[in-house]
Each structure stands twice: as C-alpha cells, then as structure tokens.
Design brief:
The termini are far apart. Helices cover about 15% and strands about 45% of the residues. The longest helix has 23 residues. Strand 15 and strand 16 form a beta hairpin. Helix 7 runs antiparallel to helix 8. By secondary structure, the protein is mostly beta strands.
C-alpha cells in the first residue's frame, strides 16, 4: 500500500477514534451550543439557536443529538423569520457519509415542530444551506422523519402554491405498538384550492428506497377529488408507488395543470383502478368508471423517460352516450352539463376552440372501442372504434369508424396543431348505409329501401369545427343505386295533387328508385352541386343552389320532372332556404321551373367519372346510375 493510500485510510480512523473518545468523556454538551451556532452561521449565513439542553451520544453507526428549543432562521428573502422551530428534537446522524462530506440524518424525531419551506420567484429554496440557496448539493438528507405534533408550511408564489399541513402521531396503544401518523392539508396548489386528510405509518420514509411507506389519503384539488390507499417508496422522489385510487372531477382536461399530462375535454367522470409507478413510468391499470352517461374501462401508461411524456391507452366502453363526445369536438367545454353543441349566434356547428397549446407537451397513442352507442333515435350510430395518435403537436384519428344505419363510415381525420390556425383534413368513406335505417324516425310506410355509398374528402383550417368547415375545400359525394321510396313522398314533392288524393284514399305504396346522386364540390366552405338528382319511376328531381357551411345557410332549388301525365300538377320549383337550425321550404311563385338549372354541371365529365367507384361498391351490376351518369356526360343533356 502506498503512503498516500495509507494516509487516506488512517485519517478517517483517527477522526473516528477522537470522536469516540470525546463522546465517551464529555458530560456537559451545552458548552458546544455557541460554537455549533457560530459554525452554522459561518457556513450558511443563518442563525441556529439552541435554547435548551444539548446532548450528544454514540449509537453506532450513528451519532445521536438531542436538543430542546431549537430555532433555525430563514434567509432574508423568506416570508417567515424561521425555517425551523422545534420544542424537542432527536437526530441520528450517520457516521459513514459524514467522512465523505455528506450530512445524512438517518432518523429525525420532532415534537411540537413548526417547519416553513419556501421557494422564491427567482428559484431560491430556503432548505438549501449555501448562502445563495441555489446549490442543490448543499442540503441535509433526511431518511426517516417522525413528528408527534407539527405544522408544515410550503410556499411557492411562482406556482401560486401555498400549503399548510398539520401532522400528529397519537399515543402508543396498550400493546405498545406505534400509532399511525395522521395529517390534514389545506391551501392552494397551482392556483387550485386544496384540502386533504389521511394517515400513514408512524415514521415517514422520506429517502428509504427499500421500505415502502403505507399511505391512505383522500382530498380535493379544485374540482378534482382523489382517494388513494397503498404504498409509496421514497416519499420525496416517488421512486415507486402501488396504490388503489378513486379519481373524479368535472373534466379530464382539468388534470393538466396538476400532472402535466394532456387529456381531452370530457364530461364529468369517476374512475377507480390501480396506480403503479416505476422508473420513468406511471401505469393506471384495469381501471373502470363512468364519464358522463358512458361507462369506460381499460389501462393506460405514461412514459416520462423520453423527450416528452408518451401516453399509451387502450379504452373500452360497453355503452357510449353520443352526447359525451361533444366536448371532444369543441361542442362546449366540459363541465357545462349537457354535451350538446355549443352554438354561435345563429349556428349549430361546434364553436369552442381546441387547446392546441398543450398538444406539443406530450405524445399519445390511444385506442378506443365502443360496443354500443346510446343516441337520439334519429341518429342511427351503433358502434365506434378509433386509433388516436398525437405526435409533435399533430393529432390523427386513423382509422375512425362508425357503424351507421347498417353500413359503415370509415376513414381518417387529421388536425395539425403545429400551425395556427389548425390545418384539418377529413377523408371518409360511406359504405352500404341502409336508407330504411338512415331515417329511423320516419313512418315505416314511407321509409325507403336501398343502400347509400359515398366519399367525403375535405380540407380546411380553423381552431373550431365551425371554422374548419367554413373554410373547407374538397368534395362530398353520395350515391344510391336502386331501392324503393314512398310513392306518396315523390308525388308530394312533384305536386301531383290528384295522385296525392288517390294515395290518401287507397294508401301509400312503394315506387322504384332508379338512381340518386348528390355530388358537391366544396370551395371555401361553400358546397355547390355538380350533380344533384333523384330519379324514380314516378318523377325525376333535379337540384341546384348552394350550402354555405361558414354562414350555416341553405339556398337550394328543387325542380321535379314528372315521368307521366298528371291532370292536376303545379309543376312549381321548391326553394329550400334559411339556416341549418331553421330551414324553410317554399314554392317558386314565379314558376321559373328552369331557373338555375342551366348552371348545373351536368356536362362535367370528371365529377361524373369520379362517381363510378361508388356504383361498383354497390350490389347492383345492372346499374341505373351507370346509365344516368352516361346520360349526364352526353353533350347537350
């Protein structure tokens, strides 16, 4: 062994021997109160006062210090004059770390203690013992803490946080067992009012990574209520946790300021499950609960080890209430009660802005399946499944699938929150929708039979659904190839008065649908039909005009053409005008049957050709729509 190595080993041993000799022979430790106070002031610039007796003893591998009436001052910038005020204190100082320049309090017992911790707006922390309170290494490590009667305050103005806690340990029971530690907390946390109460093991395991600490707590932070029971390892660092928790509140979005995780706006919720924490990960396992009038279950995890947190969730709902999806698309913020659309001054489209400023703070991968959907009778939705991905502030639902009226609506929706306003795109396919199920509230005697197919391809920009649709470009196409419709309905639209009277007397009957096409070009939120026609054995109905998504207004002209001679027919165009919320139909008093039809793009080849795949998606090989599109493409038609 080299001389230097021998010296390195010998010095700690010599110091330890001196310490043992001193501890064994000193009878009155009070003489050291002033030298200790002077050393503390020299090191920290703060005052330590021991007003009562001081006693030091050796309890290997610790040095035990007992003191009465201890006060340790705050730095000048702090709100309170003292950081620590204790009537009786017992501290076990670990000997081994002391020789490496570290101060470790293995056990601290306090009786009638008042502790005040504070963090200034510029980042200084009063529990750091360097003169500027900025060196995170200049602190005392406390592994275990027991408080028989104490008050703890924490103040952080920059976070609008001020907490006051009362901690107490009841007297030992008749069998000598330690009583649990109880606590109450009240104040504000990140601007939200907080109140909590609970109980735990008698000794707080502040820095013990081998001993889980049992904790039972319940409380409320703002509108969010939480109850938890289980074990936490290393209370200050939360290195591990295993808790059964119950969580409820007005909206999941309100958790963001508290936990830094982006959740969507939701209706009021309540869940229960197992919360597990390990290195860089939180898991909420096998939870179940309610969200609005819907049930929800599944598991989720948040990984915090990367550049930003990543949320992964698999969610299932047995019964999903369609109104509970309202806040997700901006139809009113959560907590407003009903999740119906929040209209503008004259509109029905959702006008609440998406909170994109939070999207860049985390990524997400969420799968949602709803087995059945509770909805108004007039809205024939049955099941929902979607895969949501949030990456770098860009939100994508792909696939997004609804079972609708015996068919499907499936495709992808993208919202790019990296730019302002949001850039939105929706590409959806409508396949095999059953007409009879599409209008379930219609009198069955007037219900149609047949299948709808279609495509929706729109791009727009805006921070609300209303703004996105109001600026949209693209195309909306729907086609029905074959089926049946109420003859009374068609005679009424064609204004065949004598036939209407006959059907009133004899009863309604079905009439064959040859073809129905609604093919709209969309430009800056205005939908104009390239083809708008419904052809049946009774009459053919052509349409023209516009639908303004931005203004939410209709201006359509419907012109019926009879396929037979009717002795009493008004042959008058019908105008459908007004707002989406209050459409109105009226007869053209000037009987300008052909007004506006010249503007129909019936000679446009490209729109007609684009409809052919919708025919192939149907069942009818001998297609009337194929023939109609052929007619549309012929010059002069």
């Amino acid at each position: 062994m080299t001389p230097r190595a021998k010296t390195a080993v010998a010095l700690p041993l010599v110091a330890l021997a001196i310490l043992l000799v001193v501890a064994a022979n000193v009878r009155n430790w009070n003489a050291l109160r002033e030298p200790i106070a002077h050393a503390v002031h020299t090191k920290t610039g703060r005052t330590l006062r021991i007003g009562g007796d001081l006693d030091i003893g050796l309890r290997w591998p610790y040095v035990q210090v007992r003191a009465v009436d201890v006060r340790f001052s705050n730095p000048s910038w702090a709100r309170r004059p003292n950081m620590i005020e204790v009537r009786h204190a017992t501290v076990d100082i670990a000997i081994s770390p002391f020789f490496r320049g570290r101060i470790v309090f293995q056990h601290v017992e306090l009786d009638h203690a008042a502790l005040a911790f504070e963090k200034s707006r510029d980042g200084r922390r009063n529990w750091l013992l360097d003169r500027r309170q900025r060196d995170s290494q200049a602190r005392v490590t406390i592994r275990h803490l027991a408080v028989s009667d104490g008050r703890i305050e924490y103040d952080e103005p920059a976070q609008d946080t001020r907490l006051n806690a009362r901690i107490a340990t009841a007297k030992r029971g008749p069998d000598g067992a330690s009583a649990p530690l109880t606590f109450t907390v009240q104040g504000r946390y990140k601007g939200e009012p907080l109140v909590a109460q609970g109980a735990g093991d008698p000794v707080l395991a502040l820095r013990d990574e081998t001993r889980p600490y049992h904790l039972n707590v319940s409380g409320k932070i703002g509108p969010t209520a939480v109850g938890a029971d289980g074990h936490i390892t290393d209370l200050l660092k939360l290195s591990a946790a295993d808790l059964q928790i119950v969580l409820s509140g007005a909206s999941l979005a309100q958790l963001y300021p508290l936990v830094g995780i982006v959740f969507p706006d939701t209706p009021p919720y309540r869940t229960r499950g197992r919360l597990v924490h390990g290195p860089h990960q939180w898991r909420y396992e096998k939870f179940s609960g309610e969200m609005g009038r819907s049930d929800i279950a599944g598991s989720l995890s948040v990984d915090t080890g990367g550049r930003r947190p990543i949320l992964v969730a698999r969610l299932d709902s047995t019964h999903l209430d369609i109104s509970d999806l309202g806040p997700l698309v901006g139809a009113g913020h959560a907590g407003e009660g009903s999740a119906t659309a929040k209209p503008g001054p004259t509109g029905i489209l959702p006008r609440t802005a998406f909170r994109t400023e939070r999207w860049s703070h985390m990524d997400a991968d969420v799968t949602l399946r709803a087995g059945s959907i509770d909805r108004p009778e007039a809205l024939p939705l049955h099941r929902l499944s979607t895969h949501l991905q949030l990456r770098d502030g860009r939100l994508r639902l792909d696939p997004l699938q609804f079972d609708v009226a015996g068919g499907t609506l499936v495709g992808a929706v993208t919202l790019d929150g990296r730019v302002s306003p949001i850039r939105a795109a929706a590409k959806l396919k409508v396949r095999k929708l059953q007409l009879a199920q599409l209008f379930p509230t219609l009198d069955r005697s007037r219900a149609s039979m047949g299948e709808f197919n279609g495509n929706i391809d729109l791009k727009g920009q805006g921070d609300t659904v209303a703004a996105m649709l109001g600026s949209a470009d693209g195309r909306v196409s729907l086609l029905i190839d074959g089926g049946e419709v109420s003859k009374m309905m068609m005679e009424t639209v064609s204004l065949h008065l004598l036939e209407i009277l006959q059907l009133k007397l004899a009863g309604d009957e079905p009439v064959r649908i040859r073809c129905g096409i609604a093919d709209f070009g969309v430009k800056q939120g205005v939908m104009q039909p390239d083809i708008l026609v419904l052809d049946t054995d009774v009459s053919r109905i052509d349409g023209s005009g516009r639908i303004d998504l931005g203004q939410e207004r209709l201006d359509l002209t419907i012109v019926p053409k009879s396929r037979k001679l009717s002795l009493v027919a008004l042959r008058t165009p019908i105008h459908v005008q007004g707002s989406f919320a209050h459409p109105q139909a009226s007869l053209d008093k000037g009987r300008l049957a052909m007004r506006g039809l010249g503007a129909l793009a019936l000679g446009a080849v490209n729109p007609a050709l684009a409809l052919l795949p919708l025919i192939d998606a149907g069942r009818n090989a001998d297609s009337e729509c194929r023939r109609l599109i052929g007619e549309v493409r012929m010059p002069g038609r």
